């Protein structure tokens, strides 16, 4: 299908041990398939590295993903 686009705000939350707590698209690319792939990209990145002790127990990360 060769879709192209940018998911401007993909967000995920992770626990201290690197466990993915949730992932969602805050600002859609306008193409459902790209939005779904942004979520799956984060899920496939597991296991995530643990959070360093000097940071909070839970982190919320915002990413821009371009396909």
SS-based structural class?
A: alpha+beta
State the separation between the terminal residues, measured CA to CA.
12 Å
How many helices? The count is 1
Number of strands: 3
Beta-strand percentage range: 35-45%
User: How many domain modules?
Assistant: 1
The global form is elongated
Low-pLDDT residue spans:
none
User: What share of residues is helical?
Assistant: 10-25%
Mean pLDDT: 95
User: How are the strands ordered across the major sheet?
Assistant: 2-1-3
Largest sheet: 3 strands, antiparallel
What is the string of SSEs from the N terminus onward? Answer: EEHE
Rg (C-alpha, Å)? 13 Å
Describe the oligomeric state of these chains in a short phrase: single chain
Short description:
The chain has 67 residues and is of the alpha+beta class. The protein has one domain (6-66).
Core attributes:
3 strands, 19% helix
What does this structure look like?
This protein has 67 residues and is α+β, with helices and mostly antiparallel strands. It has one domain (6-66). The protein contains 1 helix and 3 strands; from the N terminus they run ββαβ. It has one helix spanning 32-44, and strands at residues 6-15, 20-27, 58-66. The protein has a 3-stranded antiparallel sheet with strand order 2-1-3, covered by helices on one side.
